[in-house]
Amino acid sequence: MKILVAIKRVIDANVKVRVKADNTGVEMANVKMSMNPFCEIAVEEAVRLKEQGVASEVIVVSIGNQQCQESLRTALALGADRAILVKSEDDIEPLAVAKVLKTVVEKEQPEMVLLGKQSIDGDNNQTGQMLGALLGWGQGTFASKVEVADGKAQVTREIDGGLQTLSVKLPAIITTDLRLNEPRFASLPNIMKAKRKPLDELAIADLGVDVAPRTETLTVENPPARKEGIKVETVAELVDKLKNEAKVI
Ligand code: AMP
């Protein structure tokens, strides 16, 4: 079984994001970029399925600029077999990403597509669901456990107040939640080996997909600064303030 994993390169989770002075977006110049954390979990899950003998090949795909190669090489060092970069200089929206991924799926014919549940830059949480709809495939989103047997995937999802387990017929879309696994670190020999693994490049314009944006960002602003807190001396004072000032109890 082939698994396709979609990975997005985003501003590193440890970077303090700064809004541009003209409020058109966030500062991207000289900012550390990394693989979206939920995509790392997706790569790890695909590699584990390969190690269990369930998957035969793990292909990683990213849509973005030339630097996305770095994230793809990281995924290859983590155990993916080959990579595809669909080159685009523009920021593309989830619907366009899903349409591009659909063309890759049609060419590669994987039986499972693993995606992160959301990218931490746009917080969209849309691409996997849209890809499922475009392909007419079943989907198990926010997976915290995945088991594959008899042409089906059992996907456990964390929902309010408990766990839900779905059975989805393959081929299917699965999006990863935080507790699915703990991604490994790439070892130095694997980083070296990854340099020789195949990485194909395609131009987005050659795919015949309409990637025109459907939304326009009007302004990006910092959240309002938090008001300074106060220290209380006693529990009685705290209770008094909650009752009479904040009026929450
Ligand atoms: P989103 O819908 O933007 O929150 O993204 C959810 C998931 O879709 C990500 O974790 C990736 O697996 C995938 N994805 C989104 N954008 C891209 C992209 N430009 N290239 C590859 N995969 C992407």
Automatic annotation (TrEMBL):
<dbReference type="Pfam" id="PF01012">
    <property type="entry name" value="ETF"/>
</dbReference>
<comment type="function">
    <text>The electron transfer flavoprotein serves as a specific electron acceptor for other dehydrogenases. It transfers the electrons to the main respiratory chain via ETF-ubiquinone oxidoreductase (ETF dehydrogenase).</text>
</comment>
<keyword id="KW-0249">Electron transport</keyword>
<comment type="subunit">
    <text>Heterodimer of an alpha and a beta subunit.</text>
</comment>
<protein>
    <recommendedName>
        <fullName>Electron transfer flavoprotein subunit beta</fullName>
    </recommendedName>
</protein>
<dbReference type="InterPro" id="IPR033948">
    <property type="entry name" value="ETF_beta_N"/>
</dbReference>
<dbReference type="InterPro" id="IPR014729">
    <property type="entry name" value="Rossmann-like_a/b/a_fold"/>
</dbReference>
<dbReference type="InterPro" id="IPR014730">
    <property type="entry name" value="ETF_a/b_N"/>
</dbReference>
<keyword id="KW-0813">Transport</keyword>
<dbReference type="GO" id="GO:0046395">
    <property type="term" value="P:carboxylic acid catabolic process"/>
</dbReference>
<comment type="similarity">
    <text>Belongs to the ETF beta-subunit/FixA family.</text>
</comment>
<dbReference type="InterPro" id="IPR012255">
    <property type="entry name" value="ETF_b"/>
</dbReference>
<feature type="domain" description="Electron transfer flavoprotein alpha/beta-subunit N-terminal">
    <location>
        <begin position="23"/>
        <end position="211"/>
    </location>
</feature>
<dbReference type="GO" id="GO:0009055">
    <property type="term" value="F:electron transfer activity"/>
</dbReference>
<dbReference type="InterPro" id="IPR000049">
    <property type="entry name" value="ET-Flavoprotein_bsu_CS"/>
</dbReference>
